[in-house]
Design brief:
- The chain has one domain: AttH-like fold (Beta Barrel), CATH 2.40.370.10.
- Helix content is 5%, strand content 54%.
- The protein is built from two helices and 26 strands.
- The strands form three sheets. Strands 1, 2, 3, 4, 5, 6, 7, 8, 9, 10, 11, 12 and 13 form a 13-stranded antiparallel sheet that branches. Strands 14, 15, 16, 17, 18, 19, 22, 23, 24, 25 and 26 form an eleven-stranded antiparallel sheet that branches.
- Strand 11 and strand 12 form a beta hairpin.
- It is globular, with a radius of gyration of 20 Å.
- The two termini are 29 Å apart.
- The N terminus is likely disordered.
């Protein structure tokens, strides 16, 4: 019963009316973010919303193929210094911060996609974080994330699966947009601070049905924080993260409107040496090659894509059609988050790629804050 009550509190808090940074006192994002690491790997509690997002492709000792997703969200409930106006004798349950988590494991061999979610206030030793020196640590019930300059460690458990993974950066961090200032709309404040580790060497253990398996592979990490709601007219987004066989990487997001893509859509091309190039929507094209309809949410998602960026044309295919995430106990959003593979041409040469795709707003317009 306690878990159900907490889940209801999280959903209610996420449904609070959107308040702009200027109106409500959330910390705004209006220009280059001036990242300083390792400081900025940690939380930014003055901003409305923040997430640490990991995806990757893993292989077992017998060539078994898996994909994993781990996302930790931080959400500030109310703006301003509300602690000063709260009663003198506070409840131990009271907190102005929420932590929510999504985890998934895709088993390509069995065709099974397992998922889990978690949510709690930052209170009563149910969830929280600490920053000591160059290390940031988070916990959400029995999930955890530990970030240091040398490595990232994450643990998640769910129905019938779990994983404990260590990730070592091989490239990055890479700031997107203008020094990390990533526009998501027409207004200057419609933006986030956004950077990625596009390549991380992964190793650890996954457990499926009680059977542990050692795995190795490659992962991608995103960290993003903002205080701005999506602008009116944006119904969702299609997001791509791809590691190419020539050592380069691609992040691209397409913000959808009823009449096409928002002009704020963009991409980052990362060369093998880590040099990043911002690409506006005018340099990108995206089209779907098929579709898949969820038996749970009834949402109809694109399933397969053609994506073109400067010097590059890729055909992208889901490893499994059904990699939908259903999150009624945390964010209340149905979205598709899946392991993909790709092949195509880059700079006149054949390339392959692997990565993840995220699709939101296909069952109903997406209105949650990013």
């Amino acid at each position: 019963m306690l878990q159900l009550v907490l889940a209801a509190l999280m959903i209610a808090a996420m449904a609070l009316p959107a308040v702009s940074a200027e109106e409500g006192g959330f910390a705004p994002v209006t220009g280059p973010c001036g990242f300083s690491f390792p400081r900025d790997h940690g939380p930014h509690p003055g901003h409305k919303t923040e997430w640490w997002y990991y995806t990757g492709s893993l292989a077992g000792p017998g060539g078994e193929r898996f994909g994993f997703q781990f996302t930790l969200f931080r959400s500030r409930i109310l703006p301003g210094n509300v602690e000063e106006t709260w009663p003198q004798r506070p409840s131990a349950w009271r907190s102005n911060q929420l932590l929510l988590g999504h985890a998934a494991l895709t088993d390509a061999g069995s065709g099974r996609h397992s998922q889990a979610e978690a949510a709690s206030r930052k209170a009563m030793d149910l969830a929280g974080w600490s920053v000591e020196g160059d290390r940031a640590s988070f916990f959400l019930r029995d999930w955890s994330l530990d970030i240091s300059p040398q490595s990232h460690h994450l643990i998640a458990t769910g129905p019938g699966f779990s994983y404990a993974l260590g990730l070592t950066p091989a490239k990055g961090p890479v700031a997107h947009g203008d020094g990390g200032y990533s526009l998501k709309g027409a207004r200057p404040e419609s933006a986030s601070c956004y950077y990625s580790f596009p390549r991380m060497d992964a190793s650890g253990t996954i457990t499926i049905g009680g059977s542990p398996l050692k795995v190795t592979g490659q992962a991608w990490m995103d960290h993003e924080y903002s205080s701005a709601p999506l602008e009116p007219g944006i119904t969702g987004w299609d997001w791509f993260s791809l590691r190419l066989s020539d050592g380069s990487d691609l992040m691209a997001f397409f913000l959808r409107r009823e009449d096409g893509f928002s002009k704020a859509s963009s991409a980052t091309l990362v060369a093998p040496d880590g040099t990043a190039r911002h690409v506006p929507l005018s340099g990108l094209t995206l089209s779907s090659t098929g579709s898949w309809t969820s038996p749970r949410s009834k949402a109809r998602y694109p399933s397969g894509w053609r994506l073109a960026a400067p010097g590059m044309e890729l055909v992208i295919t889901p490893v499994l059609p059904d990699q939908e995430m259903n999150t009624p106990g945390s964010t209340g959003v149905n979205y598709w988050e899946g392991l993909v593979k790709a092949e195509g041409i880059k700079d006149g040469k054949k390339v392959t790629a692997e990565g993840y795709v995220e699709l939101t707003g296909y069952d109903k317009p997406f209105t949650a804050r990013y």
